[in-house]
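This part of the workshop introduces the protein records we will be handling. As an example, a complete record with its sequence and its structure tokens follows.
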Amino acid sequence: MAATLPVRFPDQLRQHLRALRKRHGLTQAQLGARIGVSQARIAEIEANPGLVNFEQLMKLLSVLHVTLTLQEEAVAPAATPPPVRAAKAPKPPRRQHQATPASRPTTLVARPKKGSW
């Protein structure tokens, strides 16, 4: 029975590649020799599979007897958008307070005393 190994993030691919290599009883050096790269390159691929070029990844998967399958996920029906709310009426401009004679500030004027000039 074939196992399905879903991969959504590079960290998951890292774990799967290492586990597949070990399941086949291969060292990094042996796997590298089979696809024509060094042991150091296999270590780099296992450490950061997001940076491997596609051709090397496909060779690696082929040696490990793994195929790459793209599966489209079922998309949930789009939720209906929330109803559009009516725009609020703009606020009327504020009226300036008009001073009435009783509410006007009192201004004091100092007048010189008679004969002080």
Helices lie at 10-23, 28-35, 39-47, 54-63. Residues 10-23 form the longest helix (14 residues). The radius of gyration is 40 Å. The chain has a mean pLDDT of 79.
